[in-house]
Write a structure and sequence with these properties.
This protein is mainly α. The chain has 10 helices and 4 strands, in the order H-E-E-E-E-H-H-H-H-H-H-H-H-H. The chain has a two-stranded antiparallel ribbon with strand order 1-2. The chain has a two-stranded antiparallel sheet with strand order 3-4.
């Protein structure tokens, strides 16, 4: 099941994972984690692959948080006077190259066209001056950026936000993994212990309780990473503890799923291993509930 087809995560959550995942380079072409080809942007610093956020999902603050290296984020920083020169190059280099190409084309074609169509000098001047206003505006933006350099404290803040975003990505990936395995486990329980067997209700109840506890832990973990105002070792320790709990719950579901697959063709009277796993899940659920 691809991330495009899954309904286990919201559209925003899927987009967060896409934007925060590593770019894949295959045969000198770049792709995101969904296999979409990425545009290569030529700036004054060289070639850059830019992953743009999908329109209509994030507000400005979320774009800065989840896609800080995008053109969209650079435009927001320029608008709010918190941009760096890299933002300037990212947004305006393509336009500058287009203007340069325009002038080169104009110089190459102006003489033969003027001869053929008897153009006047006035028309040439109009064509020559058209981009001047835009260039003047771009240069003013560059000057403004140079006078408002990004401070080291902003850089530190950016790194801290980046760390929290990576934790958020990990938590969302664990959420998707759990939900996928939980759904498969329910399908196999349905097939293996279809009603009116008493074990069906018991096993389904345990899986549902595991999901309830898991989603509670997910919500708690996401609240920490999304609403933390100051990054600290204590915050990181809390997040890691939540992730550890999530992984333990996933392992329990995974063990149940594996055992259900192994026993599909076995004698239904020999379900001790499955019952043991269910009992372990119950104990884990109770211990987490008591801890919370």
């Amino acid at each position: 099941m691809s991330k495009k087809d899954t309904n286990l995560l919201t559209k925003k959550e899927n987009e967060i994972i896409r934007l925060t995942s590593s770019i894949k380079i295959i045969n000198a072409k770049a792709y995101d984690n969904q296999g979409n080809a990425l545009d290569c942007i030529e700036t004054l610093h060289g070639l850059e692959y830019v992953m743009e956020p999908e329109k209509g999902i994030f507000n400005e603050q979320e774009i800065l948080k989840y896609a800080p290296n995008s053109i969209s984020a650079a435009k927001i920083r320029i608008k709010n006077n918190i941009a760096s020169m890299n933002d300037f190059y990212l947004v305006y280099s393509p336009l500058i190259w287009k203007i340069i190409l325009y002038y080169l084309t104009l110089l190459i074609l102006i003489v033969p066209i003027a001869i053929l169509f008897n153009w006047s000098l006035l028309i040439f001047l109009v064509l020559f001056l058209i981009p001047i206003y835009k260039l003047k505006k771009i240069m003013q933006i560059k000057t403004d950026i140079q006078l408002n350099k990004v401070s080291s404290s902003n850089t530190k803040s950016f790194n801290e936000v980046s760390n929290l975003v990576q934790y958020e990505k990990k938590i969302l990936e664990l959420k998707e993994e759990f939900e996928t395995k939980k759904m498969k486990a329910e399908e196999l329980i349905e097939k293996r212990f279809a009603p009116p067997q008493l074990t069906y209700d018991k096993f389904m109840s345990t899986v549902e309780n595991a999901e309830r506890i898991f989603m509670s832990e997910i919500d708690s973990a996401l609240d920490i990473v999304r609403y933390t105002t100051e990054y600290s070792p204590d915050i990181e320790e809390q997040i890691q503890a939540k992730i550890k709990t999530l992984k333990i719950l996933i392992k329990q579901i995974d063990d149940l799923l594996k055992e259900l697959v192994l026993t599909l063709s076995k004698d239904k009277s020999k379900d001790d291993e499955i019952k043991n796993i269910i009992n372990e899940m119950d104990r884990l659920i109770n211990s987490i509930s008591q801890y919370d």
